[in-house]
């Protein structure tokens, strides 16, 4: 499936409504597969070619067309789309908990590890990855130490960074960003950044070696490898 932000000037005389077959229109630029093209004037509307069949589509409320189609039917959240000269209709259709039918919103005006994702006007609670909080400015989850006006990183992570670490200790090797193991958790560690804790996940199937404070293959960390096999 291919989505394109190229603006194609189709002759659209006589189009009745979005999603309806366009009669007496020129052929699609490509006759095989699925391609989406920006409308020359409207950011809410796009042309869809399906094996040479042309339809005109309208993005759901709260979404606009950018050719990336990251959210629904080739459309993306309105705040993520640069329309250029195309005009965008941003009139909200609101339901309880959702300003637009599709959108992402904070679940609280306070520091929160959760947020609301709206689809078809239905709010769906979502949780950030452990150690992260919702950042309304980026419409996603972020480190709590980047939101100090509303968040207390120590409360979110459950750890207070020390001002000093013993010389020669594993943590001191990473100074000024000392690391610490999370008791009972083989998959995460804590890194202190400017005195604030960040909970880091090893990822890629790796686990933390609490002796070196580095993420390794499980078979190289016996205490974690044996617990994972149980």
UniProtKB/TrEMBL annotation:
Q: Which InterPro entries match?
A: Chitin-bd_dom (IPR002557), Chitin-bd_dom_sf (IPR036508), Chitin_bind-dev_reg (IPR051940)
One Pfam family it belongs to: CBM_14
Q: Which GO terms describe its molecular function?
A: chitin binding
Q: Where is the signal peptide?
A: 1-18
Q: Name one GO cellular component term.
A: extracellular region
Which PANTHER family does this one have?
A: CHITIN BINDING PERITROPHIN-A, LD20793P
Occurrences of domain Chitin-binding type-2 (ranges): 25-85, 95-153, 158-226
Q: Which domain of life is it from?
A: Eukaryota
* Name of the protein in question: Chitin-binding type-2 domain-containing protein
Q: Which PROSITE patterns match?
A: CHIT_BIND_II (PS50940)
Keywords of the record: Chitin-binding, Disulfide bond, Glycoprotein, Repeat, Signal
């Amino acid at each position: 499936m291919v989505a394109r932000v190229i603006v194609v000037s189709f002759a659209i005389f006589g189009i009745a409504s979005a999603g309806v077959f366009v009669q007496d229109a020129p052929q699609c630029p490509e006759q095989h597969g699925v391609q989406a093209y920006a409308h020359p004037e409207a950011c809410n509307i796009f042309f869809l070619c399906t094996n040479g069949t042309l339809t005109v589509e309208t993005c759901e409320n709260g979404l606009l067309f950018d050719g990336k189609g990251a959210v629904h039917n080739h459309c993306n959240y309105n705040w993520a789309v640069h329309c250029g000269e195309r005009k965008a209709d941003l009139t909200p259709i609101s339901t309880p908990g959702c300003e637009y039918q599709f959108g992402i919103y904070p679940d609280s005006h306070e520091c929160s590890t959760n947020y609301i994702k709206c689809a078809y006007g239905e709010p769906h609670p979502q949780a950030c990855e452990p150690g992260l909080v919702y950042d309304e400015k980026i419409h996603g989850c972020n480190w709590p130490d980047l939101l100090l006006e509303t968040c207390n990183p120590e409360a979110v992570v459950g750890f207070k960074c020390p001002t000093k670490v013993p010389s020669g200790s594993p943590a001191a090797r990473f100074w000024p960003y000392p690391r610490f193991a999370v008791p009972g958790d083989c998959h995460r560690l804590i890194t202190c950044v400017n005195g604030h804790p960040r909970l880091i996940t090893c990822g890629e199937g790796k686990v933390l070696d609490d002796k070196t404070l580095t993420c390794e293959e499980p078979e190289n960390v016996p205490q974690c490898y044996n617990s994972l096999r149980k």
